[in-house]
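Hey, I'm writing a tutorial for new members on how sequence and structure tokens pair up, and I'd like a real worked example in the thread rather than a made-up one. If someone can provide the structure for the chain below, I'll link this post from the tutorial.
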Amino acid sequence: MPMRVGVSVVILALALVNLESPQSAFGQEKGAQDNGNPEDVIRRRVDLVSVYFTVRDNKKHLVSDLPQDQFSVTEDGRSQALKFFAHHSDVVLNVGVLLDTGTNMSSILGEEAQASAQFVKHVVRPTDLGHILSYASRVEMVQLPTSDVARLEEMAGSIRIGGAAIGLPDQGPPPPKSVWFPGGGTVGINGKPVSMNREAHLYDAVRVSTLRYLSGEVGRKAIVIVALSGDSQSESSMEDALGALLENDVIAYVLQIYDAGRDKCDVLHIFEKDSLKKLAEATGGRMLEVRGIDKLESALDEISDELHHQYSLGYYPENENWNGKFRKIQISAGEKGYKVYARKGYYANLPGGNLAATH
């Protein structure tokens, strides 16, 4: 289901001009100079590109106290003049948690439930919104967007109940000492049969979360994906999912789960090389490898900390040729050893035009 990717248009409010509430993607400004004569009123439209980002030092520690003069931004290699800059630990956050429930093991679901419940407790504040989806053979709404943390915790825990019915392993005992290898046949892990045709509609879940629950929001937007394996059998492609994220200024974080010695999960943790890493990093997020399901909670704590230590900057692009092509953004920090995590760019569709369509 390919999607024509665009960039959202928002009204550039007075609060944005005062650097209190910057908008994502494009801002549209209408200014007026009124000398008493209606014919003297001058209307102008300015298209603002706004980016949320984080910075880490050479020890991978978050750096959240750098001043504006430490940063520079280029678009397609051309330097751009910054028009606003701010620290945004207090700006409203809209976050979706996407949980892979395609396992038949209650212990794995229990770890996901507990870790995601703690995550929403730490990250969602009274002014924020959080929602939870599960995905396996289909995408399920677990909890609609809410600021009620207790409700989010409760519903995160609900994936323990009935969730294992989604994406059950194939029935029947495996052959003795059956092992898996790429391209192999029947699989058995510690006597547990494993489906080689497991469905994991990860990309579909990304688009549902983004287009249904985040596209109409402003401010900071993010999704956090807990993945037991890569995508399998989604109707959407990786390009569709990435397009939805970029169009709506949503940052994606991906947690790739692998077995530790005692996990013995019934899911083969197979990930297409770098695909989810590219998805995350293109949006300004990161992919974390989680070596053991018991490490999931600490990985989510790391993301929670990052979401509350962000910057934002904005500029009016010098290139006013709205040809729909992708424009690369690069933000640099002055100090050596600092790495900036920001979305890689945007699609230059004409603001106010038909920015998004699905086929």
